[in-house]
Design a protein that fits this description.
Shape: elongated
Strand order of the largest sheet: 5-6-4-1-7-8
Radius of gyration: 23 Å
Largest sheet: 6 strands, parallel
CATH superfamily of the largest domain: Phosphoglycerate kinase, N-terminal domain
Strand content: 15-25%
CATH architecture of the largest domain: 3-Layer(aba) Sandwich
Number of strands: 17
Structural class: alpha/beta
CATH class of the largest domain: Alpha Beta
Distance between the termini: 9 Å
């Protein structure tokens, strides 16, 4: 990685402003999954061990520029304090005189959590004055929020115009692993793509088609490829506006692109629905494809044998409904058992799928950013990474 990290800068005695992605799921004010907080611990501990005072910035949820108490970062500050084993002070806002006084008073080794940056409409507009106010709180900026790297907001991009900017360890790890998938992958290199819509992944398919040895396609997006081949799809989700694109991609990819050969179909979008396995080709009227079938799992397993690099983004079916999760979980288990492969899971639903399948710890890397990892795999320049100083 050619970007500077916290190892490349002297932090001692400095006030470090750090953008983290602490956008955790909350239910009635209680954190239901603290993965994102835990992912930031190595960077936070390193900064504190170097004798710096730490000021943490993050957003939470979608308050749309208004103060919403239920989206306060207070529960996150409390959980972080538990994990660190030390107090974490909570600021009433992320800018303003009171926050400035709290930041100034912070001693080396202490942590201050700022309130949700998205309580201010200026955050998403990347407003320069708002960014300057945030930047004035610290002396060095550490961007460790890979999950927001594809967005140009004030707290991850704007701030970097006012302070020396380096990457944290999580950002470094994300760039390192995703670069292995886009720059010089060990071969054979297999890409697995799923999820509902092909339109979300067209850029990824185009970018990786020339780089990957095989592309395995599952999930709802496979339906659009079937429709492009003129197959009967019944009530299956098909993106009509993308059928022509799917036809072009099929032609361009040739035998590199591997589609399901059988599918689990159901007569309703429900766990109680009748279901059966059919060969791909004729979905009866009133029925829909909701998962890949067992022969497809075998076909994908054969394609993955001997793989050295695998990238997976998007589930193979409607895995939120238990009867239609089998294809996704089977693929997760196949990846977990590959002996010599670097396995990179592209955040979002794929990350929760490997976790639900109980094999997340067997993957080389599970990305913390769904949208950001997709943009990276597409070959786009991510604004949150671009602002980090080069080595």
């Amino acid at each position: 990685m050619n970007k500077k990290t916290i190892r490349d800068i002297d932090l001692q005695g400095k006030r470090v402003l750090m953008r983290a992605d602490l956008n955790v799921p909350l239910k009635e004010g209680v954190i239901t999954d603290d993965t994102r907080i835990r992912a930031e611990l190595p960077t936070i501990r390193y900064i504190l061990d170097q004798g710096a005072a730490l000021i943490v910035l993050s957003h939470l949820g979608r308050p749309k520029g208004k103060v919403k108490p239920e989206l306060s970062l207070k529960p996150v500050a409390e959980r972080l304090a538990e994990l660190l084993g030390q107090p974490v002070k909570m600021a009433p806002d992320c800018v303003g005189a009171e926050v400035e006084a709290m930041a100034q008073a912070l001693k080396p080794g202490e942590v201050l959590m700022l309130e949700n940056t998205r309580f201010h409409p200026e955050e998403k507009k990347n407003d320069p004055e708002f960014a300057r106010q945030l930047a004035s709180l610290g002396e060095i900026f550490v961007n460790d929020a890979f999950g927001t790297a594809h967005r140009a907001h004030a707290s991850n991009v704007g701030v970097a115009h006012y302070l020396p900017t380096v990457a944290g360890f999580l950002m470094e790890k994300e760039i390192d692993f995703l670069s292995r998938a886009t720059e010089n992958p060990e071969r054979p290199y297999i890409v697995i793509l799923g999820g509902a819509k092909i339109s979300d992944k067209i850029g990824v398919i185009r970018n990786l088609m020339g780089k990957a040895d095989k592309l395995l396609i599952g999930g709802g997006m496979a339906n659009t490829f079937f429709a492009a081949q003129g197959l009967e799809m019944g009530d299956s989700l098909v993106e009509e506006s993308a059928v022509e694109t799917a036809r072009e991609l099929l032609e361009a990819a040739g035998d590199k692109l591997i589609l399901p050969v059988d599918a689990v179909i159901a007569d309703a979008f429900s766990e109680e629905a009748q279901r059966r396995v059919i060969p791909v080709g004729t979905v009866p009227p009133g029925w829909r494809i909701l998962d890949i079938g067992p022969k497809t799992v075998e076909r994908f397993a054969a394609a993955l044998r001997g793989a050295r690099t695998v990238v997976w983004n998007g589930p193979m079916g409607v895995f939120e409904l238990e009867p239609f999760a089998q294809g996704t979980f089977a693929v997760a288990r196949i990846l977990a058992e590959l002996p010599d492969a670097i396995t990179i899971i592209g955040g979002g639903d794929s990350a929760s799928a490997v976790k639900k399948a109980g094999v997340a710890d067997k993957m080389s890397h599970v990305s913390t950013g769904g949208g950001a990892s997709l943009a990276f795999l597409e070959g786009k320049v991510l604004p949150g990474i671009a602002v980090i100083e080069d080595k």
